[in-house]
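User: Please predict the structure of the protein below. I'd like the answer in structure-token form so I can feed it into my own downstream comparison script.

Assistant: Understood. Taking the following sequence of 45 residues as input:
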Amino acid sequence: MLDLEREHPRYNGVKDDAIRRRLNMSATSYFQILNRLRRVRNQNR
């Protein structure tokens, strides 16, 4: 996920396709997980 975020920092159709192709999940699921990870990281600061 981190590699994909570095390669595609902005949300667009290309990122959507990369999420499906590389991670085999929907963009919705991807962003839910990403937001959870960000919340956990911020709580640990």
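That's the full token string. The radius of gyration is 11 Å.
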